[in-house]
Amino acid sequence: AHGGAAGVYSIAAGAGLGNTIISQGRDGLCKGWAIEEAGLSRRPIFTIKTSTYHFCKMSLFKVPCSAHGTQTSLSGSNGGTEPQRVPTEDNTGSDVVNLAEGTQEYEQGRSLDGKNILAIAGQESSEVELWDIENSRKIMCLPQRCSANMTGRLTKKKGLCMAVQAFIPCESGGYVNILSSYEDGSTLWWDVRKPGSPLSSVKYHLESALSIAIDGLCTGGISGGADNKVAMFALDHQQGTFSLRNEIEIEQPGIAGIAIRPDNKIAATAGWDHRIRVYNYNKGNALAVLKYHSATCAVVTFSHDCKLLASCSADTTVALWELYPPKTPSKVLMATEEVER
User: In residue terms, where are the WD repeats (predicted)?
Assistant: First the structure.
C-alpha cells in the first residue's frame, strides 16, 4: 500500500466514506482504497500527498450519536442541513487564507461535508492540518500561520503533536472542532472559527500525551499517554473549557490507543504492556483486563453497533472481542417475535 519500508501507520473508515477505507503511511501519503468483493482495490482510488512524517494518526470527523450509536443531525437553526464551513487554502502559496476579519471569511469559504475531511499533524510537527479528501488539498492549518506568531511559538514549545481527534459538536452549529495532544502532555481544544489560538488548554499527563478519543455525544473524552494515567474529561461547550471527571492510575505506563463505544457505556485502552483494559465510561471503574496479545497493543476500536471490540498489536494479530453487548430494542423485539412463532 505504501512504498518501501514506510509501512502503514493507521487506517480509517466511516459511514460517510461508503465502501472506502483510508490508509496513512510513513511515506507522507494517505491513500483511499475501494472495498470490493475479493478484498481491496489493487490500486488506490485517490492519494493525498500530505508530506508529513510523524507518529500522529489521522482522524476523520466525528458527529454526535444517539443512545443507540446512530449519527444525529447537526443542531442549529438549519435543522442540521448546513455542513461546516472552513476557509480554503492555496496549497502552493500562502498556507492559510486571512481570517483577520472574523467569521465572515468562513461564510465566504467553501462548504465541505465533514465526511470529506481529515485531520492530521502538519509538516510543522506542532501544527494540525485539515485536508479535503475529495480534492486532495489542504484547507486549513491550526494555529493559523498568518496570525499565529505568538500561538505558533507556544505550540512549538509543547513539542510534537502526538494525537488528534476531529469532531463536530451540536453546540458548534456545524463548525469543526479539534482536540490535539502534545509531547509535553498537554491537550488543546480548537474551533475553526478561531484558528489563531485554541479555545482551551489542559495538561493531564506528566509525559507525552499519545492518544485521545471523544465520546459519542461529543461532550467529553479520554486521554492516555506515556505515563501511568488515563484521564476522563468533560467538555463545556458554552465556556470552551475542559473539566477532569476521573483520573485512573494503571500499573504499567503507556497507552497507545483509546476507544469509547458509541453508546458511551464502556471504553477501552491499548497498552504498551500488551493489555487491553476496559472501563465503565461514566463511572471510571475498571471492568476487565484482556490478556491475549504478546506485544505492544497499538489500537482499539468498537463496531458501530456496539457489539464488538477489535484490538491490534505489534505481534501482528488482530483480536475481536464480544464485550457487554447492548440490549437494543430491536433485539428484544426479535426475541419476542421468535417466541410468538
Answer: 290-323
pLDDT digits 0-9 by tens, 210-250: 999 999 999 999 999 999 999 999 999 999 999 999 999 99
Q: Which helix (H) or strand (E) holds 194?
A: none
C-beta separation of 166 from 174 below 8 A = no
Provide CB contacts within 8 A for 90, sequence distance 6+. Answer: 97
User: For residue 181, which amino acid is it?
Assistant: S
- Residue 162: predicted pLDDT: 95
What pLDDT does residue 41 have?
A: 85
CA torsion through residues 201, 206, 211, 212, sign = negative
> DSSP state, 196?
T
- The CB density around residue 322, as the number of other CB atoms within 10 Å, is 9
Identity of the amino acid at 264: N
**DSSP per position, 36-100:** ETTEE-SS-SEEEE----SSPPPEEEE--B-TTSPBPPPPSTTTT-SPPB-----TTS-SS---T
CB 135 within 8 A of CB 48: no
CA distances in angstroms from 337 to 307, 325, 329, listed in the order given:
21, 20, 12
35-70: pLDDT as tens digits: 888 788 888 888 888 888 888 999 998 888 754 445
Q: Output the nine-digit C-alpha cell for 83.
A: 455542513
Q: Cell numbers for 303, please give them.
A: 463496531
Question: How many angstroms from the chain centroid is the CA of residue 42?
Answer: 27
Length of the chain equals 341
Q: What pLDDT, on a 0 to 100 scale, did the predictor assign at position 150? A: 57
3-state secondary structure (DSSP) of residue 257 = strand
Q: What are the structural domains of the chain?
A: 1-49 (no CATH), 54-249 (2.40.128.630), 274-341 (no CATH)
- Given a contact cutoff of 8 angstroms between Cβ atoms, the answer to whether 140 and 86 are in contact is yes
Residues 81 and 62: their CA atoms lie apart, in Å, by 16
